[in-house]
Design a protein that fits this description.
- The chain has two domains: 195 residues, inorganic pyrophosphatase (n-terminal core); 121 residues, Diaminopimelate Epimerase, Chain A, domain 1 (Roll), CATH 3.10.310.30.
- The protein is α/β, with parallel strands linked by helices.
- It starts with a helix and ends with a helix.
- Helix 2 packs antiparallel against helix 6, helix 6 crosses helix 8 and helix 11 crosses helix 12.
- It is globular.
- The protein is built from twelve helices and eleven strands.
């Protein structure tokens, strides 16, 4: 029996013999984190296992309606099993989920991010570094144990589309397209998903994105692009953090830019920093890891607190180091 089936059967067997199972992704969840949680929940349901998906807070109107229609829990639970998806390290977990991880009897992780062995928290781990998404890892691991339907196919498609940047990142491989070919057979209306989930912009979100563009600065002869959204921008436009995150994609299209740094301050003196690159040989996850963040070679993130200027300067300095820029 191969390791993939070993992991899947172990998870299903343990979960089928306990009273409660909880599933959680990382804090400030993106679509892959949310969709891999929902996909895992549906796979468990198909195998006669009830589970709860945990989120830090309810999803707001800036998330796709199809995703918001699912049931989540935000209160603290005491499950017998915790399944972490898209999250192998505790430093990116919601605080309340860390408490669960520290006390649960059985725990599983399904992920695709780089990790340090010392930071692994789960008893059982299925981590395929470099895969397109946690959704792809789940699909390939559990494929013998679920039946695709329209709902599950849409969930997988959204997660994979999001974490591949619309299939343009280098983590998009032939196995990814093999899965996509299976998904589109279920009348998921991929064009509608992309339009409604990723291409639509609400008027006030357009305003905050305009502010982000107006804040842009370039460093090191245009190799580094920086945008900053302050807490005041969120307050004045009444846009939550989730409504501003897609500004990260735009600056990658500027010729000569190697690394994009987008700084978001959704609460005072707390900075969520997104890193993006389209350049071969540049791994922004190395920048994020320096600050105890994480992510992929092409897309990563971290959180800093305190003084804004010092935080920005520290990230730029580390980015210059990765790019081999000396001063």
């Amino acid at each position: 029996m191969n390791k993939r089936k070993d992991f899947a059967q172990k998870l299903l067997d343990i979960c089928s013999h306990v009273k409660s199972v909880a599933i959680s992704g990382h804090n400030n969840p993106d679509y892959d984190s949310i969709c891999s949680s929902l996909a895992m929940q549906e796979i468990l349901r198909q195998n006669g296992i009830k589970s709860d998906v945990l989120l830090e807070k309810e999803l707001d109107e800036y998330f796709y309606d199809f995703i918001r229609e699912f049931n989540y829990k935000t209160e603290v639970l005491t499950p017998d099993v915790l399944i972490g998806v898209d999250i192998s390290e505790k430093n990116r977990m919601p605080k309340e989920v860390v408490k669960i991880a520290d006390n649960v009897s059985n725990s599983f992780v399904i992920d695709h991010h780089k990790y340090e062995d010392k930071d692994l928290w789960a008893k059982f781990n299925q981590i395929w570094v470099g895969e397109s998404s946690a959704c792809e890892v789940i699909f390939r691991t559990f494929e013998p144990y679920f039946k695709l339907n329209n709902k599950l196919a849409k969930i997988f498609y959204i997660g994979i589309y999001s974490d591949t940047g619309g299939f343009i990142y280098s983590n998009t491989k032939f196995t990814t397209f093999e899965i996509l070919a299976k998904l589109v057979k279920y009348d998921i209306k991929a064009d509608e998903i992309v339009r409604d989930c990723f291409a639509k912009t609400k008027p006030n979100a357009f305003e905050i994105n305009k502010r982000a563009i107006n804040s842009v600065q370039f460093f090191d002869d245009g190799q580094i692009a920086l945008s900053v959204l302050r807490y005041s921008d969120y307050q004045e436009t009444k846009v939550p953090y989730s409504g501003s995150r897609y500004i990260v994609s735009y600056l990658q299209s500027v010729e000569g830019v190697k690394v994009v740094i987008n700084v978001f301050e959704p609460e005072p003196k707390v900075y969520h920093i997104s890193l993006r690159t389209m350049v071969d040989g540049v791994d922004v996850s190395e920048i994020a890891a320096h600050f105890k963040g994480g992510g992929h070679m092409r897309a990563s993130g971290l959180t800093l607190q305190g003084d804004l200027e010092k935080s920005i300067n520290a990230v730029i300095k580390q980015t210059e180091k990765i790019l081999g820029i000396t001063k």
